[in-house]
Amino acid sequence: MDDLKKATQRKMSFLATLKAVFWSFFGVRRKSDYESDSQRLNPVHVIIAGLIGAALFIAGLVLLVKLVVSPA
């Protein structure tokens, strides 16, 4: 339980977490950045950023499909 408390108190901004998750969605991460982030990222922020990223990805796909399928 102490490990979880320590992990959630990591000092990396939510914006930096969003950036890390964004690049992870594309699979473009340097190994050194990944190792550095894994030590500093707050797991709660990663989960929230992942959900936001997934929602934006799905919304983008739905919008793209609507544009392609709609009558011209």
Overall description:
This protein is an all-alpha fold. It has one domain. The protein is 79% helix and 0% strand. It has 4 helices and no strands. α2 (14-26) packs across α4. It is elongated.
Averaging pLDDT over every residue, what do you get? 82
Number of strands: 0
Helix content: over 70%
Identify the overall geometry.
Answer: elongated
Please give the largest β-sheet: none
In the predicted model, the low-confidence regions spanning at least 5 consecutive residues are none
What would you say about this model in short?
It is built from four helices and no strands.
Helices and strands in order, then pairings?
Blueprint: H1 2-8, H2 14-26, H3 31-40, H4 43-69
Helix pairs in contact: 2-4
Please tag this protein with its features.
mainly alpha; 79% helix; single chain; 72 residues
